[in-house]
Design a protein that fits this description.
The chain is of the alpha+beta class. The longest helix is centred in the C-terminal third of the chain and has 22 residues. The chain folds into 2 domains: about 170 residues, Thiolase/Chalcone synthase (Peroxisomal Thiolase, Chain A, domain 1, 3-Layer(aba) Sandwich); about 120 residues, Peroxisomal Thiolase, Chain A, domain 1, CATH 3.40.47. The strands form 6 sheets. It has a 5-stranded mixed sheet with strand order 1-7-6-4-5, sandwiched between helices. The structure holds coenzyme A. Coenzyme A (COA) binds next to helix 2, helix 6 and helix 7. The site of coenzyme A (COA) has 19 residues, from helix 2, helix 6 and helix 7.
C-alpha cells in the first residue's frame, strides 16, 4: 500500500479579481503617461481594481472556494490555511477571517508576508507541513490589493499594479508521487530600499520622557531599474538551481510561470533559460502586477483553459520586495 504523508499533490486552483478594470487610456487621464509607454515598457494594457468597500478577505475567499471545489474536498477537510499577502485588511492578519468565512472549522490559519514572492514562499512552507506528516490538506492563497497603497500621481509605480487573489489546494500523496520536485528561496535585505511600502513614524508624547511612534504607511516607492536588473539576473539563476535539485533540464519544463511583473522580464528570463515563448504563461496584459496573486491567477487561468494538464512540469518563480525571490518546480495535479 502507498504511504500517505511525505508527498505533495497540487490538486485544485481558483482565482478572483475585482469586476472593475481600468485600461491604460483611462489611466493616462489620471496621470502623465500613455498607453504606448505602458504597453511597450511593460506589456500591461489594463488592471483590475478593488473598490473601497471590497475586501481582501472577500477576494481571497472567492479564489479559495473555487480551488477547494476543484480539489474535490470541503472546507472542513482543511488542516492549514496560509494567506500570502502584503496588504491584509488587518495588520494582525486576515487568514483567520478567511478561515471563518470559508467554514474551515478545523484549520489553523496565518498570514505570510513576502511581497511578490509570497505565493512561492507559501507553497514551500505549506509543503513542509505535509512532508512532516503533520497535515494532509493545505490551502494556500496569494492575494493583494496594492491599489490601496499606491500614489496615484506617481507614474513610475501606479501604472504597474493591479488587484486580485489566487489559491491552490495542496494535499498529501504517496511519497513516490511527490509533485514538489525542487525549490530555491532567497532574500537580500541589502537591497531592501529598492521596493518599499514602509511605515513612517510620527511621534506621540505620552509623558515628558516617554514618547511612542504614531504613524502610517507611505505609498509604494520603487527603483524600477534596480528591480528590473535584479529580476533578470537572479530569477534565471534560481530556476537553474531548483531544476538541478529536481534533476530536470529546461527542456523538461512544460510551463514557465513567472511572477507577472513585466513582459520584458518574462521574455528576458525565458531567453536566458532558452525556454521558447509558447511555454511561457503570461496574462499581465489584463491584470498588471497583482503581487502575491499573480502566479496563482495565471496558474488557474491556464488550468481552466486546459493548457496545464495533470503531470505537466511547471517552473514557477516569484520575485520582488525584500528583496526576495523564490522558485518552485512542481507537477500539476495527481
Ligand atoms: N509613463 C510615461 N513615462 C514614464 C513613466 C510612465 N508611466 N514612468 C517613467 N517614465 C519616464 C521616466 O520619467 C523616464 O523619463 P526621462 O528619460 O525623461 O527621465 C523614462 O520614462 C524612462 O524611465 P525608466 O525608469 O528608465 O524606464 P524603464 O525602461 O526602466 O522602465 C519600468 C521602467 C518601471 C517599467 C522598469 O524599470 C521595470 O519594469 N522595472 C521593474 C519594476 C517591477 O516589476 N517592479 C515590481 C517587481 S515585483
Amino acid at each position: 500500500m502507498k504511504q500517505l504523508g511525505a508527498g505533495i499533490a497540487i490538486t485544485g486552483s481558483g482565482s478572483a479579481t475585482p469586476a472593475v478594470s481600468l485600461d491604460n487610456h483611462a489611466l493616462s487621464k489620471i496621470v502623465d503617461t500613455s498607453d504606448e509607454w505602458i504597453r511597450t515598457r511593460t506589456g500591461i494594457e489594463s488592471r483590475h481594481l478593488a473598490k473601497a468597500e471590497e475586501s481582501l478577505t472577500d477576494l481571497a475567499v472567492a479564489s479559495a472556494s473555487a480551488a477547494i471545489a476543484q480539489a474535490g474536498i470541503t472546507p472542513e477537510d482543511l488542516d492549514l490555511i496560509i494567506l500570502a499577502t502584503s496588504t491584509a485588511d488587518d495588520l494582525f492578519g486576515s487568514a483567520s477571517k478567511i478561515q471563518a468565512n470559508l467554514g474551515a472549522t478545523r484549520a489553523v490559519a496565518f498570514d505570510l508576508t513576502a511581497a511578490c514572492s509570497g505565493f512561492i514562499f507559501g507553497l514551500v512552507t505549506g509543503a513542509q507541513f505535509i512532508r512532516t506528516g503533520a497535515y494532509q490538506n493545505v490551502l494556500l492563497i496569494g492575494a493583494d490589493i496594492l491599489s490601496r497603497w499606491l500614489d496615484w500621481s506617481d507614474r513610475t509605480t501606479c501604472v504597474l499594479f493591479g488587484d486580485g487573489a489566487g489559491a491552490v489546494v495542496m494535499q498529501a500523496s504517496a511519497t513516490e508521487d511527490d509533485s514538489l520536485l525542487g525549490f530555491e528561496l532567497r532574500s537580500d535585505g541589502k537591497q531592501n530600499d529598492c521596493l518599499k511600502l514602509s511605515y513612517r513614524s510620527g511621534s506621540q508624547e505620552l509623558t515628558s520622557n516617554v514618547s511612542v511612534g504614531s504613524g502610517s504607511y507611505r505609498p509604494i516607492t520603487m527603483n524600477g531599474r534596480e528591480v528590473y536588473r535584479f529580476a533578470v539576473q537572479k530569477v534565471p539563476e534560481a530556476i537553474e538551481k531548483a531544476l538541478f535539485r529536481a534533476n530536470l533540464n529546461t527542456e523538461e519544463v512544460d510551463w514557465l510561470l513567472l511572477h507577472q511583473a513585466n513582459q520584458r522580464i518574462l521574455d528576458s528570463v525565458a531567453d536566458r533559460l532558452k525556454i521558447p515563448q509558447d511555454k511561457v504563461l503570461s496574462n499581465l496584459a489584463s491584470y498588471g502586477n497583482t503581487s502575491a496573486a499573480s502566479i496563482p491567477i495565471a496558474l488557474d487561468e491556464a488550468v481552466r483553459a486546459g493548457k496545464i494538464k495533470p503531470g505537466h512540469v511547471i517552473a514557477a518563480s516569484g520575485f520582488g520586495a525584500g528583496l526576495t525571490w523564490g522558485v518552485a518546480i512542481f507537477k500539476w495535479g495527481r
